[in-house]
Amino acid sequence: MALEYLIRESESPEANSPLIVLLHGYGSNEADLFAFADMLPASHHVVSLRAPHTLMRESFAWFALDFTADEKRFSNLDQARESLESVASFMDDFIASNRVDENNVTLIGFSQGAILSYALSFKYPQKVKQVAALSGYLNPDIFELASTPGISHLRYFISHGSADQVVPVQWARKAPEILRELGCEVTYNEYPVGHGVAPQNFADLLKWLKQA
To answer: What's the predicted TM-score (pTM) here?
Structure first.
């Protein structure tokens, strides 16, 4: 399915520029994370995607959630897999029709967008250089963890609010151990906030991006 998006082009559009893909959270839209686009590296194209499932006006989701369920039954996995493929196809098409360094693609996802970013990087590690997973968690039920190709080249920035009442911090803490066992470079930070991105969190994310 085709995805709506917003774009901020690189300051050097004539060159093959790195690409940052932004994936918003449940119930939000492409304008949410795009509010930070001008604070992201000017050398990068920045694209913010709109999730395909409409909840209400200006409110979208990558997949349906059951807020009464436990972690294992939390997500509509079929919709999650469909959205994963849609994002992967969008990235392929965008890279094919724009001047993009295909070896320097960053996913930044918040909450549900972080869950999808994890899954995409595991299923298609060749499409991604690094992932920033903000206030999300690694859900291996979306993909076959046992058949995951080598991902040791990937970098991950993981952040979470210690007081998050939407996605418990205990869920987020599982990812760093799994990723490090697979040989990935992982930065993990917690902040004394709820389900959101604190100013220090965003500052640490920018620092991490500059270290790539």
So the answer is: 0.94
